[in-house]
Inverse folding.
């Protein structure tokens, strides 16, 4: 099998079989919107929340991938539907939230997992490449957050937001654009967690470290081989690890938690560095590959 077609991450069959440590009715009667829901982490969150009893609305930019996920969820007896959505467009986001409230009657949870980046030395970013990552990872997250909060406020209903970010407290190199965008999301989340607390809206972040997902094909094999050594546990995590963190924050277990960043990185933030582009020779010491 060539590197370009290698499969990474957990399949729908895997996600349906992962051990569930939360009660199967912990989200019964709730509606969860998951942006980027067809991707590796978003897909795992959708499965986790569905298995906890939530009705799932997943969004993404590719109808085919969304259809595959919804078909798998409904075949397993869960309630799920999807909508194609470009979170970079505020008009599209507002229209989406109007439709969700009309169809579902309520929304309880928003998980912002939509995003993307590409490994490249920051000095070589084009303006278009930079803007694409910032517009999706930061602006798109904000559009979804604010549109949801406005509707919760107008409905007199509280809500719950979980934003997927990255670990920014240790070296993560080769994706400076997403570090900038996700750092903005962290600061934004902490700020509005205070502003929106009187509305009964909680806002938290989950920061994954080296997590194997289907998106790993954008990184070189040389870079991927170092990821297991980027934390003291000497292994990588999977999307279910991140989904469980989201579940803790979104379920009643997180009722007294807001403005926090839950890090899921095997202790990597205490350990060292991650080079998504491969470690430059200049920084290598004896024994490095």
């Amino acid at each position: 099998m060539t590197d370009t077609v290698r499969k990474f991450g957990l399949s729908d069959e895997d996600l349906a079989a992962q051990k569930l440590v939360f009660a199967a009715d912990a989200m019964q009667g709730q509606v969860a919107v998951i942006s980027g829901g067809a991707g590796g982490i978003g897909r795992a969150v959708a499965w986790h929340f569905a298995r906890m009893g939530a009705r799932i609305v997943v969004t993404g930019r590719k109808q085919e991938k969304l259809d595959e996920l919804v078909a798998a969820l409904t075949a397993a007896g869960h309630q799920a539907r999807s909508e194609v959505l470009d979170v970079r467009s505020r008009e599209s986001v507002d229209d989406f939230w109007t439709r969700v409230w009309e169809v579902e009657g309520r929304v309880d949870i928003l998980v912002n997992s939509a995003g993307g980046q590409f490994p490249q030395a920051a000095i070589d970013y084009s303006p278009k490449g930079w803007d694409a990552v910032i517009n999706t990872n930061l602006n798109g997250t904000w559009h979804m957050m604010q549109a949801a909060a406005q509707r919760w406020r107008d409905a007199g209903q509280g809500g719950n937001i979980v934003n997927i970010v990255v670990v920014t407290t240790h070296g993560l190199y080769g994706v400076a654009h997403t570090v900038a965008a996700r750092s903005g999301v962290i600061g934004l989340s902490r700020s509005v967690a205070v502003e929106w607390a009187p509305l009964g809206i909680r806002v938290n972040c989950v920061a994954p470290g080296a997590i194997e997902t289907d998106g790993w094909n954008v990184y070189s094999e040389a870079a991927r081989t170092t990821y297991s050594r980027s934390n003291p546990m000497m292994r990588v995590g999977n999307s279910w690890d991140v989904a469980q963190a989201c579940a803790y924050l979104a379920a009643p277990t997180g009722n007294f938690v807001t403005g926090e960043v839950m890090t899921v990185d095997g202790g990597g933030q205490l350990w060292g560095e991650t080079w998504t582009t491969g470690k430059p020779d200049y920084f290598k010491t004896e024994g490095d590959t």
Remarks:
- The chain has one domain: 10-281.
- The first strand starts at residue 31 and ends at 35.
